[in-house]
Fold:
Amino acid sequence: MLFKILKKLDYYIQPLLIVTLIIGVGIQVLYRFIPNFEVPWSLEFISFVFGASVWFGISIAIKEDAHVGITFIVDMLPIKYKKIVLIIQNIIFCIFIIWIGYLGSESILYYYLKGIKTPAMAAPYYIVRIPIVFGCLYSCYRLIEKIVLIKNSSLEN
Structure:
């Protein structure tokens, strides 16, 4: 059940973030053209939603194998070595993502303990930065999933 949810969760979250982003941008546009219509928090809100979208977009890019990479060297390798190189590459990427997630969780803890709030929305800063950790966790899940697929595949196509 959990893996069924995890298989598509980012594909459901990302459109909601994009729709929220579009609504936020619409509010920001109205703010500029309607007199006495001020929403100072909208630009800050848009920034945080865009950031969340990026973090969940990373996991989708991993799933779709859409990250930028130089593959011509790997493509020239025999299948046995290609699998090894791709697994090592994904392990290194996973370690990097874990490191970013760890640093993100440390900063979230700092924001929580200090009670730091966002300037315009006055929202707890740790809440708007949580997508960093969730995005990293989800990206690690995707990378592990990808490593298992590489290990079990023939890579002949």
